[in-house]
Amino acid sequence: MEESESLLPHSGEDEQLSEIGAKMDGTTLGKIRAYWLGSVVCMGGFLFGYDSGIVGGVLTMASFKSDYRYGSTDQTYTNSLAVGLQQLGGFLACFLAWPLTDKLGRKKSLMISSFVFCIGALIQTINTHSLPAFYVARLIAGLGLGAATVAVPMFNSEMMPKEMRGQVGSFFQWFYTFGIFASYWVDYGVARGIASTNPAQWQIPIGLQLVPAAFLGLGMFTIPESTRWLTKKGKHEEAWRSLQWIRAGSSDATVTEMEEIRAGVVAEEMATEGFRLRELLERENFKRVFAAFAVFTAQQATGATAFAYFGPQYFSLIVGSGEQSLLLTAIFGAVKVVACGIFVLFFSERLSRREVLIGGAAFMAVCHITTAVVVKHFPAPSEGGHTVPPSGIATIALIYLFVIAYNFSWGPLPWPYVSEIFPARIREPGVAVGVASQWLFNFVFSLTTPYMISSMGWGTFLLWGIFDAIIAVVAFAFLKETRGLSLEAIAHQRFKASSSHGFG
Questions:
Q1: CB burial class (10 A; 0-12, 13-18, 19+) of residue 215?
Q2: CA neighbor of 362 nearest in space, from 447, 469, 211
Q3: Nearest CA to 339 among 388, 396, 410?
Q4: Which run of H or of E encompasses 502?
């Protein structure tokens, strides 16, 4: 009897086990809340992808052309304006968004962004029979979408624990790929299932934009405001409640983190009391701003965005025109989703940010240059056939390998990376400049790609390959490592060359 009693844990051991169990429960709950917050705010990424992918198919529908009274001679002009004005709105919103996020916070800014986008989407859905009204609606939707793309990376970076920041920050790109994928199949479904004389054929895909937009706006009611923004505004009690919510408790580590955040904010405010735009031109700040601009410019220069908009045209260079190019584009969308998902779920916090960006660019360069060589020597037939030649199969495989590499590197990583490299004082304008470059070159490359394809043919692949090679070299020379570091630690790093870490 005495021996059996001696095997039971003492009361002190019971308390210790209870504390360990509570800590484990809190950690699990904290991860769930972090994933929920990331999913809600990154619905802006889904909206971005869906909106980008849906319009191309809609503009080719006979029902839309009939309702808006334009023919094939006006197709290119209409496509350019419908896509370009949305991107112009997004570009302009980047410079309007950061003062908004600073004054009202990340949460309210995203709610306003959602509301503005919904206004634009509603006008697009109404059958106005007026292309100018449709163009204005695209511009309005672009303003809402652009503002969201500025607020999302800030919100994510400021609320995530450092060990989850890369993974959840990469949700934006993953959700973007889901949006693109959904748009391809929605367009395909309504085109086949609804008569071309019925306006619902184009109104359904356009109107469905309201669903993710409403989820983004209403989802804000389920999450707290950014802890760092609240601390910056002197709302310390609310900031502490926000941090407790996202970390699911008030452990010693949470208390330490709160003290670190407060110390970081106080140090930044003491350094310079009133922010002025000219601060962005100061040596260290300018290097960070330029890095953000360059990273997002490089993201667009990989060629992936051009593929997202003009997939069928690219695949027609390989297999010829016809239904095969549409099927290959749909498969391309599925590959994007799977590749980005695998990276986000299993590799985003296990791999070096810097090394992945360098390696991804180098691999994409090889894929594009090899594709250019094959297409040059084995051109596609003028009309697509039922049988794809071996050269076509090889180049299709190379393009799918390219999109896998992109979604393991330059697709998801620029979003968390750019939001990490700025101290809190200049994070809003810094991220805004970076995202503005994303919108600017999104516009530039989407506008020029159709002309590149028609005039350069296989040379288009070669051009993207050269761009990717340059990106790899520049990333090796200048990018720094941020994985596993707190935002405060990154903010105190100086941007100077280092053989092992680039900047660091």
A1: middle
A2: 469
A3: 410
A4: strand 502-503
Say yes or no: 148 and 49 in one domain. Answer: yes
Provide mean pLDDT across the span 431-446: 83
Q: How far apart are CA 504 and CA 430, in angstroms?
A: 18
Q: In the predicted model, what is the mean pLDDT of residues 462-484?
A: 88
10 Å Cβ neighbour count for 349? 18
If asked whether residues 331 and 182 sit together in one domain, one would say no
Count Cβ atoms within 10 A of the Cβ of residue 256 and give its class: 0-12 exposed, 13-18 middle, 19 or more buried: exposed
The span from the CA of 123 to the CA of 133, in Å, is: 8
266, 494 contact by CB (below 8 A): no
Q: Give the count of beta carbons closer than 10 Å to the beta carbon of residue 327.
A: 14
Tokens, residue 359: 């390696």
Domain harbouring 417, CATH code? 1.20.1250.20
Residues 269-300 have pLDDT tens digits of 775 566 777 888 888 888 888 989 999 999 99
> What is the structure's pLDDT at 237?
94
Pair 199, 95 in one domain? yes
| Least confident span in 183-192, 439-448, 477-486 | 477-486
Of the three residues 271, 294, 329, the one that is the final residue of a domain is 271
Look up the pTM and report it: 0.73
Distance CA 258, CA 154 (A): 18
State both tokens at 232. 């910056």
Q: Which domain holds residue 248?
A: 227-271
* Dihedral of alpha carbons 115, 117, 119, 125, sign: negative
How many CB atoms lie under 10 A from the CB of residue 125? Answer: 19
- Considering only CA atoms, which of 416, 339, 101 is closest in space to residue 229? 101
Phi, psi of 426, deg, nearest 5: -115, 15
Q: Nearest to residue 501, comparing CAs of 360, 483, 491, 414?
A: 483
Q: Are 244 and 254 in contact (CB under 8 A)?
A: yes
Burial 458-487, CB ≥16 within 10 A → b, else e: bebbbbbbebbbebbeebbebbbbbbebbb
| Token digits of residue 284 | 């260290």
Evaluate whether 406 touches 356 at the Cβ level (below 8 Å): no
**H-assigned helices in 321-383:** 323-342, 353-377
Highest mean pLDDT among 367-376, 418-427, 430-439: 367-376
The residue from 184, 207, 223 where one domain ends is 223
Collapsing DSSP to helix, strand or coil, 181 comes out as helix
- pLDDT class for 426, splitting at 50, 70, 90? confident
